[in-house]
Amino acid sequence: MSSATTATTRKYQLFIDGQWVDSDSGKTFNTPNPATGETLAEIAEADKSDVDKAVSAARRAFEGKWSKLSARDRGRLLYKLSQLIEQHAAELAALETADNGKPIKESLYVDLPQVVENFEYFAGWATKIEGETIPVPGKMFNYTLREPVGVCGQIIPWNFPLLMAAWKLAPALAAGNTVVLKPAEQTPVGAMELAKLIQEAGFPEGVVNIVPGYGETAGAALAAHPGIDKIAFTGSTEVGKMIAKAAADNLTKVSLELGGKAPNIVFADSDLDQAVAGAMMGIFYNQGQVCCAGSRLFVEESVKDEFLGRLSDKAGKIAVGDPMNKATQMGPQVSEEQLNRIKGYVDIAREEGATVVAGGQPPQLDEAFQKGYFFTPTIFSEVNNSMRVAQEEIFGPVVSVISFKDEDDLIKQANDTIYGLSAGIWTRDITRAHRFAKEIKAGVVWINTYNMFNAASPFGGYKQSGYGREMGRHALELYTQVKSVWVDLSGRPIGWFGK
Ligand code: NAI
Ligand code: MG
Q1: Which residue is closest in CA terms to ligand 1's atom 42?
Q2: CB under 8 Å to 402, separation ≥6 — which residues?
Q3: C-alpha span between 459 and 332 (Å, rounded)
Q4: Whose CA is nearest to atom 11 of ligand 1?
Q5: Residue 366 neighbours by CB under 8 Å, 6+ apart
Q6: Ligand 1 atom with minimal separation from the 246 CA
Q7: DSSP string, 127-165
């Protein structure tokens, strides 16, 4: 048995105004370890009145202590936080794996280092957010101030719990905003642990408030709250639309990072070893629970059989099982709901006439993991782009393989989706690669690679994959607003209406 399954149940309260408090209702909810189904933690459940308190605390902090701090001090706090996270990386990674199910190899070597990187990167930005002077005509001086937006509501998903918190918190805080963060109900533990480190780093009370709870209650209350100035959301396109509607009533600023159905394209002239490995990385990483997953795998007809053979062979060898084991490459899905959703799509694929060439069912595992939400790496072939399995986000280790003959037709099909988050292409022809990068409607394009991220590089969607860009300098656009200031230098009355 893994250590996570033998641990006693952890308990967390809400983190509001620098204090750990029970929810007003006194209600709690449990988060299971998805590998075993056992309860990992019991969490206070925030609802509307708790969200109200958190928003008020964030407002007080925004108007008060936080705005009086220098940019340098904000940066230093963020840097301190990045260092604390780094010091606690091993235990945070183990908790992340216990709460989410992702292999420890990923939590430890990918998620946690990227969390640290994001706080570190935005710590550096705090002192570099500047206005401009504008060369206006006449005896006038015009300059801009780049100011924080104010109180930011941030709602995050369960697939990269800590990393999504970092993507949201780091730029918001660097720019001088205060935050009410709602983690996903499936994976609240990382954010609560982060709250402890935020306290330890010395952030003033109320700058970051964390209100775990359900989407329909706490999440909806936050999105519709008239006391927030901005709402940032990552999750399903369906809920993204609800957030945008709720925000419309108060004209709250919105940024959305939503679903995807990314084309990952393999041309016959590609290095097939590289392309097979890239296709695997594209769909099987993090159990396939990735918004930018390469879930539509377009393969040029002439290499389709060979490619599919190699891919199925490798998919069958992926080590599925105990996520706490360092050799494990695929853990459980995050929840029973997600597992059932995936099983449902396997049935849909068969009904639509696709062929299941690998996986398609849960794996056989040891006793300890029989209540876990595991599924095997799954490949559908004979898919055409209009099928539901090619159009709807499955969000699991399930790839739809579609063959193509020529490039024009390929581009049309690749763009024939409501989504536009990411895309991949595998080819040795650089002209074709860059032509594709230009023609594809997606926020991120990977050429002969996949799932590459850096805190300095923007990420976000075209079309129904959302709006706004996270990470890099672009994230600061989301968390600042521009004020234009005009100053008369002539010392004379405006002449328009006479003297
Ligand atoms: P979801 O969009 O319902 O959940 C994401 C976050 O939104 C969670 O914190 C949740 O509590 C919150 N939320 C839910 N309903 C809300 C509401 N009415 N108002 C405010 N906040 C709300 O996603 P869910 O149900 O967990 O997964 C369903 C599907 O969504 C997945 O199968 C996948 O296709 C997609 N998804 C996409 C993600 C991405 O990274 N783009 C992440 C998670 C899910
Ligand atoms: Mg939902």
Answers
A1: 235
A2: 296, 297, 298, 299, 383, 384, 385, 390, 413
A3: 26
A4: 215
A5: 321, 322
A6: 19
A7: GG----EE--SSSEEEEEEEEE--EEEEE--SSSHHHHH
Cβ(154)–Cβ(252) below 8 Å: no
Per-residue pLDDT of the chain (499 residues), as tens digits, is 344 444 578 999 999 999 999 999 999 999 999 999 999 999 999 999 999 999 999 999 999 999 999 999 999 999 999 999 999 999 999 999 999 999 999 999 999 999 999 999 999 999 999 999 999 999 999 999 999 999 999 999 999 999 999 999 999 999 999 999 999 999 999 999 999 999 999 999 999 999 999 999 999 999 999 999 999 999 999 999 999 999 999 999 999 999 999 999 999 999 999 999 999 999 999 999 999 999 999 999 999 999 999 999 999 999 999 999 999 999 999 999 999 999 999 999 999 999 999 999 999 999 999 999 999 999 999 999 999 999 999 999 999 999 999 999 999 999 999 999 999 999 999 999 999 999 999 999 999 999 999 999 999 999 999 999 999 999 999 999 999 999 999 999 998 998 6
**Contact indicator for 292, 395 with CB cutoff of 8 Å:** no
Predicted structure pTM score: 0.97
Of 155, 234, 239, 286, the one to substitute when testing ligand 1's pocket (max ligand atoms within 8 A of C-beta) is 239
Query: Ligand nearest 216 Cα, by number?
Result: 1
Which of 222, 236, 252 for a ligand 1 pocket mutation test, highest count of atoms within 8 Å of Cβ? 236
Backbone angles phi, psi at 380, to 5 degrees: -105, 130
Take atom 13 of ligand 1 and give the residue whose Cα is closest.
215
Distance (Å) from CA 235 to ligand 1 centroid: 4
Q: CB-based burial of residue 243 (10 Å sphere; 0-12 exposed, 13-18 middle, 19+ buried)? A: buried
Is there a contact between 420 and 464 (Cβ–Cβ < 8 Å)?
yes
Contact between 298 and 410 under an 8 Å Cβ cutoff? The reply is yes
Name residues whose C-beta falls within 8 Å of residue 146's C-beta, 6 or more positions apart in sequence. Answer: 129, 130, 131, 480, 481, 482, 483
Q: In a 3-state reduction of DSSP, which class is residue 453?
A: coil
Measure the CA–CA gap between 234 and 444, rounded to whole angstroms. Answer: 16
Q: Is 291 a catalytic residue?
A: yes
423 three-class SS: strand
Q: Point out the catalytic residue in the list 257, 300, 352, 470.
A: 257
From the candidates 291, 300, 352, 393, which is the catalytic residue?
291
Please state, in angstroms and as integers, the Cα–Cα distance from residue 237 to each residue in 292, 393, 457, 461, 467, following that order.
13, 10, 23, 11, 11
152 part of the active site: no
Which ligand neighbours the alpha carbon of 461 most closely?
A: 1
Q: What is the pLDDT of residue 498?
A: 82
Q: Which run of H or of E encompasses 482?
A: strand 480-488
Query: Which listed ligand is nearest to 257 at the C-alpha?
Result: 1
